[in-house]
Amino acid sequence: IFLLLSTVSMFLNTLTPKFYVALTGTSSLISGLILIFEWWYFRKYGTSFIEQVSVSHLRPLLGGVDNSSPSNSNPSNSDADSSRQSVSECKVWRNPLNLFRGAEYNRYTWVTGREPLTYYDMNLSAQDHQTFFTCDSDHLRPADAIMQKAWRERNPQARISAAHEALDIEDCATAYILLAEEEATTIVEAEKLFKQALKAGEGCYRRSQQTQHHGTQHETQHSEYDTLKLHVQLCCHLYVFQLMKEFPLLSMFNIHENLLESLLELQAYADVQAVLAKYDDISLPKSATICYTAALLKARAVSDKFSPEAASRRGLSPAEMNAVEAIHRAVEFNPHVPKYLLEMKSLILPPEHILKRGDSEAIAYAFFHLQHWKRVEGALNLLHCTWEGTFRMIPYPLEKGHLFYPYPVCTETADRELLPIFHEVSVYPKKELPFFILFTAGLCSFTAMLALLTHQFPELMGVFAKAFLSTLFAPLNFIMEKVENILPSSLWHQLTRI
After folding, report:
1. Is 93 helix (H, G, I), strand (E, B) or coil?
2. Do 383 and 280 have their domain in common?
3. Both 118 and 79 in a single domain?
4. Residue 223 pLDDT exceeds 80
5. pLDDT at residue 73 greater than cutoff 50
6. H helices within 280-349, ranges in order?
């Protein structure tokens, strides 16, 4: 060993600056090639090649087994193909569980001084009101003519004043609706006004039937009455089951989401499963309510006894695998929901319109369904342990999708128009660069810098290299000196000869 150290020391002393230039240049070239290959592999497959080899081949040899991240061996390709055809990228939908401006939103403004709704969101609501509650024959009735102008007013007080003016003329159903949504300060007051609106609408509908006029005006009034009855019953959360029978084509209202929320509140999980079996279909647009409710039901079967430590030791059971896959499916559809359900991000009042797969839909879902997840023991724990695994399963780039159509790139822009400015809009989680790519990038940069300095200052860098190597071998030299002092000279002479 002593002779070997002496030989190494003599070799280092004979090295010229050209050697250090060649050494650092070669190291920089090799690390650069490794970095380029790692980056290309990551862009194509979404994972580090070195990391994949170490996990797949080296870890089993060392006795490590990873059973905590299940593989989804049956992706729904037909689901993705159908969704690509049936769902537009950034279509804005009415929030089926939207709140009342007077009873909730205005009270929030009074307390905090913040506006919970954007002008863009309220303008969409104004368009909805004009579509639902106006018709071509409104100019024939003075009260309806006033309300036709009221829906277009931007000033809330002007709308409320117009509604009172219409009620002074006659019992106007749409005036009651406007007052229930924007003037009533409590839900009880709103419900009372909606019932008055329903009564007024029924009276208007009966009078139109008595005229025996079955022309365009009668058909328009009939459609308006049906829409009014639907809106009133939805807002009052009354007759939900009857509505499903009376109005089978309610895709534009998403009434099945109201039904799911009502059944979850009643803890009627069997009925929830029956509704999901009908609406969680390939041909229908998905929503966070459908995907996360399906995940909640599957998590409910295993969450009370789920333990991540036990699952990593024994692997996931079939029921646990189904629950985890359902969570991964829901997270891929809308990745913003888990942070709200896990209370990692604060909730705000939901907007009146939502963008599917966006932050606005996540807020609307979590606002009404967080209590249902808390009610199921261990469901949030299972979600916490598994939701981030979704992003390891989706191919890179993440927008390619796995079970659903590609994630729209315009959701962030649309959400910023729907959500208030004081809310920090959640964006689609980006896949972090693997450690080995960062390591090789740092190594490449460091060796390239050394190569440049060695080329410019060969003598100085040679001195630094010799000093570095001397410092590196100093502990070993120290140990050898101590061993030489302790051992007898004859024994040490025989060891050196060996």
Report:
1. strand
2. yes
3. no
4. no
5. no
6. 288-300, 308-314, 318-333, 337-341
Span of 43-47, 249-253, 440-444 with lowest mean pLDDT: 249-253
Tokens of 463: 């001195």
pLDDT at 435 over 80: no
d(CA 414, CA 351): 12
Full residue range of the structural domain in which residue 400 is found? 70-96+254-432
* Residue 221: closest CA among 135, 152, 128: 135
Q: Is residue 172 included in any domain, yes or no?
A: yes
Query: Above 70 in pLDDT, residue 484?
Result: no
273 within some domain: yes
- Whether 282 and 78 have beta carbons less than 8 Å apart is answered as yes
On whether the CB atoms of residues 454 and 24 are closer than 8 A, the answer is yes
Is residue 22 one of the residues assigned to a domain?
yes
pLDDT in tens, 351-397: 999 998 889 999 999 999 999 999 988 899 999 888 888 777 776 54
Instruction: Judge contact between 252 and 92, C-beta under 8 A.
Output: no
Residues in the chain: 498
**Measured distance CA(82)–CA(396) in Å, rounded:** 22
Q: Are 107 and 185 in contact (CB under 8 A)?
A: yes
Whether 244 and 255 have beta carbons less than 8 Å apart is answered as yes
Q: Which two tokens stand for residue 174?
A: 């749409």
